[in-house]
Amino acid sequence: MSRKWVISAATAAAALMIGFSGLGAVQAADKKLVVGFSQIGSESGWRAAETKTAKAEADKRGIDLKISDAQQKQENQIKAVRSFVAQGVDAIFIAPVVATGWDSVLKEAKEAKIPVVLLDRQIETKDPSLYMTAVTSDTVHEGRVAGEWLAKQTGGKCAVVELQGTVGSSPAINRKKGFDEIVAKNPGMKIVRTQSGDFTRAKGKEVMESFIKAENGGKGICAVYAHNDDMAVGAIQAIKEAGLKPGKDILVVSIDGVPDIFKAMSEGEANATVELTPNMAGPAYDALIAFKKDGKAPPKWIQTESALFTPDTAKAEYERRKDAY
Amino acid sequence: MTLSAPGPARNLPQYGALIAVLLANWLLFPDFFAIRLQDGRLFGSLIDVLNRGAPVALLAVGMTMVIATRGVDLSVGAVMAISGAIAATMTGAGWSLPAVLAASLAAGLLCGLWNGVLVAVLRIQPIIATLILMVAGRGIAQLVTEGQIVTFTSPALAFIGSGSFLTVPMPVVLTIVLLAVTALLVRATALGLMIEAVGINRLSSAGAGVNTPVVLVAVYVWCGLCAAVAGLIVTADIRGADANNAGLWLELDAILAVVVGGTSLLGGRFGLVLSVVGALIIQSMNTGILLSGFKPEFNLIVKAGVLLVVLLLQSPTLTLFLPRPRGARPIGTVKPPVAPTSGGAKP
Amino acid sequence: MTASTAPPSAPLLAIRGLSKAFLGVQALDGVDFTLRHGEIHALLGENGAGKSTLIKTLTGVYQRDGGTVALEGREIAPRGVEEAQRLHIGTVYQEVNLLPNLSVAENLFLGRQPMRWGLVDRGAMRRRARAVLQPYGLSVDVTAPLGRFSVATQQIIAIARAVDMSAKVLILDEPTASLDAQEVAVLFKVMRTLRSRGIGIVFVTHFLDQVYEVCDSITVLRNGRLVGERRTADLPRLDLVAMMLGRELEAAAHRIDLGPAELDSRPPLASFKGFGKARSVEPFDLDIRPGEVVALAGLLGSGRTETVRLVFGMDRADKGEATVDGRPARLRGPRDAVRLGFGFCPEDRKKEGIVGELSVRENIILALQARQGWLKPIPRRRQEEIADRFIRLLDIRTPDAERPIQLLSGGNQQKALLARWLATEPRLLILDEPTRGIDVGAHAEIIRLIERLCADGMALLVVSSELEEIVAYSRRVVVLRDRRHVAELRGGEVSVERIVAAIASETPNPIASETPNIEVRQ
């Protein structure tokens, strides 16, 4: 600990000396916005893409982005925020690993007059003034978009099997909720089976296998709705192994927009995906720049777009995303 | 030359439970036992049970011997992830199948060697020793895949997961082969006796000249190999290595399978086939729940309930109150009470 | 010798027609047993006589098949050790059944800790623990883990616990097996005090001296049946042994006389020079020649066991060298020793000898199999032949070779361990207390066996506390004191008196200047 402290003190001293030695450099740094980003970690491909995109979008706008990887631990995130406050950054972005326990550290940021932007997830707090805005997708809306596409595609008549996410997780609950709203509006649509596939390919495949057997060899299934693309990819394999054609005999619609589902779509094995954009930082930068320029506070919630993609653009989208992920 | 512990009455709870769960599945889903050929491969719910149960059954084979030495291997799930990550990444980089398989299996052996050395040579408690790799292993797998799901298209590797041999799915074939090889290895040699001896009393065994470190290292190495094969199957099955999720929590299913199979966590007598039966009991329930259309929220509760019944049937205290089949030997087959739990009250 | 209180109407404990069978084997067949208030009652018998079964039925470990058990006239049928304890029947076993990780005080008050405000009152517990142990002459650190103390101390703590739990009937199952003479004396004092308080004590032992020293009555069992009950004063020793064995005891083992000259002319099989280990045993020289029995004598803790453990490689020597057949030998573990043709029956059979859940057969072939290596399994039929041969040869009492060895009595376990090594046809067999905890009959058999093996050219290195036994079969006796080999007696010099003299002799070692308390068992 003490050695680390010595090193950072030395670094700070060195930085100071550089600062004094060239006033021009200090002025240039003044103009450039500095943003500290406390990222959860890199537990999934989507998370890695979010980090990558945040960097790319920062470069685009000439923003100096400092990223701290919390390795799934809130204590690391709190430490990172404190260190950002100490460094006097212009704004702090947090992708919070959990919803609670942020009040005291956010108060410190507020006292230092540093605006905080939440990315991708919301927090629970009694004092909303602790953060400037939250950039997240609307997971209920994602379910709705998927449902609407399916209703339109099948003329409102479809026996759907549903692959849920991890039981009790908020995306699983909300994506089910949004989809159920559309099913309720279409009397011809029905969810015949629903089970958890734990957001993984392996479980998605296993659950789909049993759905096919339970529904008369898959003949009774019009479409599969998966709460994420990974489960859909697993389901596609199960459909193929049962001697059916995914995308034709059974329609496949899912959420997230990871590269592999675009690949499947370009091969005609999946029909639609609703993108959960990894570009959470972009809208946040824009809001921040506007705030710094004319002091206009953005709305409390910036909702990212839930765009639907279909096979006709799949190939191009796959090429575009391949490297972001 | 039995594969299981002696005493036919002792195996009744396991086989009985398996049959009961299968029958329950049949009642919930009348086509449960229906099997047909699909693209030259057996197809049906019963086949799903065998096929999906294969990874845990493989883990259980290795785990049985580790537990027989009074150890436990918590790292098998992470080893699966490592082996799968290596296989998918190397395949993606254009390596040939033999090279890929050799590298993946070698990784499993190496992981087992690491665990074995910690336990046998450095004498770290198995639960702690293997916890290290359980935590670090997934990290290693993530390093290999760079945190992504690494997919591949090689039909040769995919064959391990979804191909078939004489209409039997490959995972099932591999499990049977590995079970047979393991059984041969321990029962046609004196290794099984030494594993049991070391598990029951390491000091006495060492005093009788048994090479206890080598026996211990051997079981962990073999357990690592079994985990690597399971990892290959899972990876080949979904045509991708998911370092975050491959084999996640499967070490617990494997331990459960071994315990349901009747091998005591206190070491000693073990039954390989019974552990595989234990794995099939667990998988039959999983498949049954999926077929039944229960809400997913009930999955774990149903599972826990059935397992409780199976384990109660094996409880020495409870079996005393049940009518015993002729020839059952309560004294000979039931473990004596363990000193730490009952000893305090005796004097 | 009898209690001073007026005889109550009903005896303290009356067992009538007690029966218990296992798998059709009648372990107890209509046994009567009567324990009166303020009486020490010896329960004697050979292996398989039914002593353990009787005790376990009494303490609720087993449920009886037939017969009655009455405590002060009231019928009882305890269903477990705890219930027996509540009925004031306390038991102390030979192997201490306490928790080595807990402190002495915690062990003493386990399940009945003194409480204050819902918490364990550790201060009170420590004070009471010291008070409980005080009459036993034990001033130990009651906060230290029990496992840190010697078996003897643990044993006394176990007795203290049982006595403190207001037992009316105290069952002592071979409590003296691991105690030295001084500790035995302390125990007997406690037993006599308890007797004067009206407590009835059932005393199981293999030491006949102790029976005559402390017991009022004797009940003898044989093969699950009652042979008889006698007042100690009315039963001559020879008659007692006859009751136990059901036959006249054969004349005491006779001396074998191999002249020292002939003996020393043989080249040594194994030779140790300056062999030793820090904090275990001082460096010693020791030669062992084919066909001789070398005994190690000394008090408990004098370094006897430590010596043989070094010789077998159970502990690794840090000084000196070993030569076998004149060539330097590596002894880094038991496996090296086994390869050199050594065998070792340790003192603590349960912990270091038997593999409890394995069958008698598997236990017997284990060392042979280990030496052959796992790749060359001994065929099942050959295993059975070996097991059956030794079961017959050593008269191991077991229904069959497939019985888990832990279900055998101590003496038969010991014989099976002997069989394990004999199956390897060892050149040097090391026996640490081979007759401890073994009944009279098996005792004699084991001594005869030792002589026979030695006549066949095998070398034996024996540790024993039974000096008469040592004198009977040893050609040479190495006497140890305070972890040091202090004397070697050979041939005609070997006698109990000389061994005792060597143990008790003045020593240059200042630490041992206090006179050791010596008691020789006659």
From TrEMBL, chain A:
<feature type="domain" description="Periplasmic binding protein">
    <location>
        <begin position="35"/>
        <end position="280"/>
    </location>
</feature>
<keyword id="KW-0732">Signal</keyword>
<dbReference type="InterPro" id="IPR025997">
    <property type="entry name" value="SBP_2_dom"/>
</dbReference>
<comment type="similarity">
    <text>Belongs to the bacterial solute-binding protein 2 family.</text>
</comment>
<dbReference type="InterPro" id="IPR054837">
    <property type="entry name" value="YtfQ_transport"/>
</dbReference>
<feature type="signal peptide">
    <location>
        <begin position="1"/>
        <end position="28"/>
    </location>
</feature>
<protein>
    <submittedName>
        <fullName>ABC transporter substrate-binding protein</fullName>
    </submittedName>
</protein>
<dbReference type="InterPro" id="IPR028082">
    <property type="entry name" value="Peripla_BP_I"/>
</dbReference>
<dbReference type="Pfam" id="PF13407">
    <property type="entry name" value="Peripla_BP_4"/>
</dbReference>
From TrEMBL, chain B:
<protein>
    <submittedName>
        <fullName>ABC transporter permease</fullName>
    </submittedName>
</protein>
<feature type="transmembrane region" description="Helical">
    <location>
        <begin position="246"/>
        <end position="266"/>
    </location>
</feature>
<feature type="transmembrane region" description="Helical">
    <location>
        <begin position="12"/>
        <end position="29"/>
    </location>
</feature>
<keyword id="KW-0472">Membrane</keyword>
<feature type="transmembrane region" description="Helical">
    <location>
        <begin position="273"/>
        <end position="294"/>
    </location>
</feature>
<feature type="transmembrane region" description="Helical">
    <location>
        <begin position="101"/>
        <end position="122"/>
    </location>
</feature>
<keyword id="KW-1133">Transmembrane helix</keyword>
<feature type="transmembrane region" description="Helical">
    <location>
        <begin position="214"/>
        <end position="234"/>
    </location>
</feature>
<dbReference type="InterPro" id="IPR001851">
    <property type="entry name" value="ABC_transp_permease"/>
</dbReference>
<keyword id="KW-0812">Transmembrane</keyword>
<feature type="transmembrane region" description="Helical">
    <location>
        <begin position="49"/>
        <end position="67"/>
    </location>
</feature>
<dbReference type="Pfam" id="PF02653">
    <property type="entry name" value="BPD_transp_2"/>
</dbReference>
<feature type="transmembrane region" description="Helical">
    <location>
        <begin position="300"/>
        <end position="322"/>
    </location>
</feature>
<keyword id="KW-1003">Cell membrane</keyword>
TrEMBL record, chain C:
<keyword id="KW-0762">Sugar transport</keyword>
<dbReference type="InterPro" id="IPR027417">
    <property type="entry name" value="P-loop_NTPase"/>
</dbReference>
<dbReference type="InterPro" id="IPR017871">
    <property type="entry name" value="ABC_transporter-like_CS"/>
</dbReference>
<dbReference type="InterPro" id="IPR050107">
    <property type="entry name" value="ABC_carbohydrate_import_ATPase"/>
</dbReference>
<protein>
    <submittedName>
        <fullName>Sugar ABC transporter ATP-binding protein</fullName>
    </submittedName>
</protein>
<dbReference type="Pfam" id="PF00005">
    <property type="entry name" value="ABC_tran"/>
</dbReference>
<keyword id="KW-0547">Nucleotide-binding</keyword>
<keyword id="KW-0813">Transport</keyword>
<dbReference type="InterPro" id="IPR049716">
    <property type="entry name" value="YtfR-like"/>
</dbReference>
<keyword id="KW-0067">ATP-binding</keyword>
<dbReference type="InterPro" id="IPR003439">
    <property type="entry name" value="ABC_transporter-like_ATP-bd"/>
</dbReference>
<feature type="domain" description="ABC transporter">
    <location>
        <begin position="253"/>
        <end position="507"/>
    </location>
</feature>
<dbReference type="GO" id="GO:0005524">
    <property type="term" value="F:ATP binding"/>
</dbReference>
<keyword id="KW-0677">Repeat</keyword>
<feature type="domain" description="ABC transporter">
    <location>
        <begin position="13"/>
        <end position="248"/>
    </location>
</feature>
